[in-house]
């Protein structure tokens, strides 16, 4: 029973992170911390690193905090929660930074219906260069309209 509960918490955390990514992007990145996110929409820099990458540190700190709570303070759910956040972060990095933005030249030939839908949704978001009116979608599950054949 403990293993099943652990797995459920891990999966629930991963799924909640999709909501958290959407919420953070819409209300924090395109809100009061636009100054950090702006360079993701305006490529006016030559560096591989963007100020936008600092958002990764926040979620990494939360994940590490969960691991510390599990290891040192007896918070048993800290391990599946921390791993769920970590797994989402790895998935986000693979999909957003590597697959969509091609920060590393991998997955260039992926051209199935799901890959096209993810790219289409992200392209719609990036057509807005300003803080306002930027449509925000979930990274893994954008609206179904992006998965229609064109």
Overview of this protein structure:
The chain is mainly α. It has a domain at 2-33 and 50-111. Helices cover 64% and strands 0% of the residues. It has five helices and no strands.
Distance between the ends = 46 Å
N-to-C SSE string, H for helix and E for strand? HHHHH
Query: How does the overall form come out from the CA principal axes?
Result: globular
Q: On the 0-100 scale, what is the average pLDDT?
A: 81
**Quick one: how many beta strands?**
0
Instruction: Tell me the number of helical segments per DSSP (H or I, 4 or more residues long).
Output: 5
Over all CA atoms, what is the radius of gyration?
17 Å
DSSP strand (E) fraction? under 5%
Structural class by helix and strand composition: mainly alpha
Helix content: 55-70%
Stretches with pLDDT under 50, minimum 5 residues: none
Q: Give the biggest sheet.
A: none
What's this, in brief?
This protein is mainly alpha-helical and 150 residues long.
Secondary-structure blueprint:
Elements (H helix, E strand, L loop, with lengths): L1 H31 L1 H8 L12 H20 L4 H23 L12 H14 L24
Helix pairs in contact: 1-2, 1-4, 3-4
InterPro entries: BETA-OHASE-like, Fatty_acid_hydroxylase
GO molecular function, one term: iron ion binding
Organism: Marixanthomonas spongiae
What key attributes describe this structure?
single chain, 150 residues, mainly alpha, 5 helices, 64% helix, 0% strand
């Amino acid at each position: 029973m403990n293993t099943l509960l652990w797995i459920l918490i891990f999966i629930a955390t991963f799924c909640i992170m999709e909501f958290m990514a959407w919420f953070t992007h819409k209300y924090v990145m395109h809100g009061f911390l636009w100054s950090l996110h702006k360079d993701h929409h305006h490529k006016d820099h030559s560096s591989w690193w963007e100020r936008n990458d600092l958002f990764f540190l926040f979620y990494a700190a939360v994940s590490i905090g969960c691991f510390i709570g599990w290891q040192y303070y007896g918070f048993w759910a800290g391990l599946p929660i921390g791993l769920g956040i970590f797994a989402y972060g790895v998935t986000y990095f693979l999909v957003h930074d590597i697959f969509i933005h091609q920060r590393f030249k991998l997955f260039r030939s992926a051209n199935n219906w799901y890959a096209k839908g993810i790219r289409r949704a992200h392209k719609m978001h990036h057509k807005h260069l300003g803080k306002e009116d930027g449509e925000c979608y979930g990274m893994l599950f954008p609206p179904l309209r992006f998965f229609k054949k064109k």
